[in-house]
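Hello,

I think I submitted the S-adenosylmethionine job twice by accident. Can you confirm which output corresponds to this input? Input:
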Amino acid sequence: MRFYATVPMGLEEVSSEEIEELGGRIYSIRKGKGRVFFEGNQELVPKLNFFSRTLERVLILIENTCIDELEDIYTCLKSLDYSFIKPYQSFAIRSLRIGKHDFTSIDISREAGQGVIDSYMLSKGHRLKVNLDNPDVIIRVDLIHDELFVGLDTTGDNALHKRWYRVYNHPAPLNTAIASSMIRLSGWKEGKILLDPMCGGGTIPIEAAMKMRDIPPGKNRKFAYFNFMGKILPDYTEKEIFSPIYGFDRFRKHVDGAIENAKEAGVLDTIQFMKKDFLKVEDFEANFIITNPPYGLRIGKKRIIEELYTGLFERAVNVLKGDSVLVLITPHKGLVEEIIAKLGFTTLDMIPVKYGNLDTTIFKLKI
Ligand SMILES: C[S@@+](CC[C@H](N)C(=O)[O-])C[C@H]1O[C@@H](n2cnc3c(N)ncnc32)[C@H](O)[C@@H]1O
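Support: Only one job matched these inputs. Its output is below.
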């Protein structure tokens, strides 16, 4: 069977590694388009949805082609086979459009939906029901520039990065799939001290602790494939491992929120959250720093951000011991390049990541 996964744009290679570890065979990576294509058997559907930490959605590939105009979407969708939809089931098109086009994503959904209905009518003599709110089957039609991706969504409206444990909502939470990709990229292994010195609601320490203890991120949720494959869930065993993971934040409110989130995730006994201003931390040792510092994009914050980032890197030089690594996500690429050149960091990797509308960079550095 052929599949594709949607992943944070820029992190396709990191996610490909995870897909391969879970049994998929990668055959194409659309770098910068947030799409990874792979082959495998049907068992991959529950496995990837349940265990993957870096993916957004898992889809069964129906079509991948290039188009010139809106009518091509209708023609393409009408030419495809939808016998996987039972006549009594309802469907919905969910569409996404990235790039410059003289039509909207609503136009894409309308054309695509009509294509599905007409194809089914031709082959089965039955008019399929549309249900936009609670469909049995979701078909995703994504147009990224001129490339069209059509897939049967096995995940559902609730993307995989939406974890159940987020009971405290930090005002600027990091996407959990990006957090997990940063952890993977860092090469952190249990036994090594991991610190997020600006942890907010605790996403990075919590994702690290869940990974170490083999806690599946797909626990406690439903998936779209239940509607057409049944409620199959893989077996798993959680591990009792306690390795040093720390999270600091300068605000009590966020530290308390991180504790609530970790409790909900079942990893509070694995992480130590502390209220600390990292810029004032004197005696602390870590092997890995993985962090998502404030972006401070509001007007008037430039000087504050320069001081904060300079302080963060100066402290990191003191804190990091041995064969250590710092992984950081930021929209301030130029500023970080200036600071790391002054302080003597070596860049191991630099990945542009589209995060919502923001152009960010993930740096992997060593001192
Ligand atoms: C972008 S948020 C982190 C969000 C977090 N990754 C999450 O998913 O919830 C940045 C955090 O850095 C904290 N922070 C800012 N300056 C700090 C400092 N000097 N020491 C420790 N934390 C700081 C802020 O309070 C804020 O919670």
